[in-house]
Amino acid sequence: MKRYDLIVVGAGPAGLSAAIEAARCGMRVAVFDENAKPGGQLFKQIHKFFGSKEHQAKIRGYKIGETLLAEAAEAGVEVFLNATVAGIYLDKELLVQRGEAMEHFKADTIIIATGAAENMVTFEGWTLPGVIGAGAAQTMMNLYGIKPGQKVLMLGSGNVGLVVSFQLMQAGCEVVALVDAAPRVGGYGVHAAKIARCGVPFYLAHTITKAEGSDCVSGVEIAQVDDDFAPIPGTEKHFDVDTICLAVGLSPMSQLLKMAGCNMVDDPRRGGQVPQVDENGETSIPGLFAAGDVSGIEEASSAMIKGRMSGLAAAAYLGFLNEQDKDNSLADLEIALDSLHQGMFAPGSKGKTFAKTDEGIAVSQSLLKKGYLDDADIERFIHRPDQTIKNSGIHPVIECTQNIPCNPCQDACTRGCIKVGKTITALPRIDATNSCTGCGMCIASCSGQAIFLVDEDYAPGYASITLPYEFLPRPQKGELGTALSRSGQPLGHAEIIDVRSAKAFDQTTLVTIKVPVEQAMTARFYKPETNAAGQ
């Protein structure tokens, strides 16, 4: 029987973070993961993270995964892949299946970081080939380079549904609609907005009634629901699709913790059956910890911080870290975690509705119900009292209207034109007393693709708009296409007058279009005439 100071079950963001911290304290650490590749969800996540520098904001998920793997190797962590932990027994003994063999391992401390599994919903035809989870779609696209389908309908408007819908379009799929039984968009408004301006309609207070097809999905029927979420007869709508993608929540994979005898609670706010844990992730069994989604569903940024906290607590439990150093390190991590737990999307705010932002501005109902800001919203948010807006020359326009934890735009602007302040959930504000150079770093750094550079004085009768673009092939200077509104409606012809791509932009291309000046505050996306961007 092989022995370790610490065994971590799960090589995702929480597990790897925990293993790294423990190994750096001098512990002998092993990580087991049932998958062929480490990194968990990180390598499926090609979008840029939110938060601050300490949360690795504006860095794409797969790059964070690469960094964690490198740090784990440098720290001496042993990572075992294709290794399924089949059981956990008394005195912290694990039974692990590797290939055809069943092997026994023993540790003085254990951290369970097994993550979560996708939920499913049932409807007529839900077992047909072509009905898949959003996570499965991400795996196909971002790990194996396979298009899940040609025409896709997404069920679920939380962050997973919104992010995967955009990635489906990046892969060349057509997303015909985004559907949710809830009456409001569940995820970040900036994620919804970048989908809406591509022309994808939102059907909120709707659900799937049946998947059509005999051998595979050939269509889908949705219907509006009443206040009890029951379909309303006569409201059915049909879409021709070959794929139905489900993003209807996650459930913690807590089976090992139950098997170990940990005290469990049924907590819907944390995702279901989760262990009782203290502030550092220790369960009711001394020396047995839980980290990441297995102890409560959150974003990967929170999972990494909680993993680090559990790794340090495990090191202190065995005496590899003195209490003072542990307390100092945990205090810094608690501050970083607390900053993510603020604003409208904090764990304690699940299920709540907000009438106003922290700044006292009425929340956009158009954004919540349609996925995009309307003209009244723009007037209310862009011309608010705490901003000084320039109406001549090039200047940034920020369409981030919810209190979400994110501030890379502030760090990106070396001129001080954009300010968020110490509270990272505050709305970014423009200080036009500082002159914008048009460098575009704010656009590239924005994880929500919610910043645009506008110049109403580009040419007589014309304005220029620089916008983020993450589709292939990239447009070319001189190309003619169509300018789209925030709702994805065509506004007229647009000419590409500049295309910028740089290493510092991290694969976000800055595309500048020329439009009539009256469209300066309405045009927010560009569609090539050939429809080559997969929209």
Automatic annotation (TrEMBL):
Domain 4Fe-4S ferredoxin-type: 426-456
PROSITE patterns: 4FE4S_FER_2
Classification via Gene3D superfamilies: 3.30.70.20, FAD/NAD(P)-binding domain
InterPro entries from the UniProt entry: 4Fe4S_Fe-S-bd (IPR017896), FAD/NAD-bd_sf (IPR036188), FAD/NAD-binding_dom (IPR023753), Metab_Enz_Cyan_OpOx_G3PDH (IPR051691)
Record's keyword terms, sorted: Oxidoreductase
Keyword Oxidoreductase: yes
Name recorded for this polypeptide: FAD-binding protein
Species of provenance: Acetobacterium malicum
